[in-house]
Amino acid sequence: NRKLQLRIGSSAMLSYTIFFFFLAASVNESMKLAPEISTQGHYNWGLALPFVGVILLFLANRAIKKDEALIRSADRLR
Asked: pTM of the prediction?
């Protein structure tokens, strides 16, 4: 069911984006409270992973939309 997949993908992108902003805000706040931790760079790769997830979900939704368009064009030929 492609429509359901699109809705799930869109809601997952939204939740990943919200999670990313909360994560960035909490890391920023923790770096203000304990600046000695920020010099070690523990958070660099961890902050990038939700962003990668959003990109992959965007690509998945785009592929689902292309598949839906292909199915509709095949239905017109019948």
From this structure: 0.73
